[in-house]
Predict the 3D structure of the following.
Amino acid sequence: MNADIQDTPVHFVAVWLKDQPLASKPPAWKGGWERWAQGQVALYMDDRDGYKVWPEEHIYANAADNDKACDLDFAKNGVHTYCELKCLSEVNDDTANKFLKAVKKDYEKVQTKLVPAAKGSTMWVVALSQQQFRDSIVQEAQDPQFAFWQRFKYVTVQAPGNWPGKCTFDIWYWKFVNNV
């Protein structure tokens, strides 16, 4: 794994995936994989390597009440790193277009005004997809409405399991220090 993503939400998701035999068979309920992954990553990383992890921390100052929370808050030695997590879910009939629109919403969200206690924090947008969807995501990202996607990098991780084409994941990511 790249040194620039060690000890970051990208690394945490990757470590969890490598140890997660059920990642290739996400829950079939609406929003299931993303909600499940969010909770699983929080449980997996909490109290590991000195981190405390909280899901759904209210850090966005001017958001609507239903959108004030950040998906994951990783805290260590008083420093908070926030992560918005998106997952492309085959079981929910997601498409590359829907996935990129959802990631774009998070990309814009992490650049908005934060509550005073969160100001200056590093914000990560992490987008998880099975590798089988990489080509369609890259193709769809050529649309000018998804120009932001050019700022994203990715790493590939192998999860345990015997489901051909569904055990290799791309973790797409972008970070931003929010001083707003």
User: Anything to note?
Assistant: The chain has a mean pLDDT of 90. The two ends are 31 Å apart (CA to CA). Strands lie at 52-58, 69-76, 79-87, 121-130, 153-158, 168-178. The first strand starts at residue 52 and ends at 58.
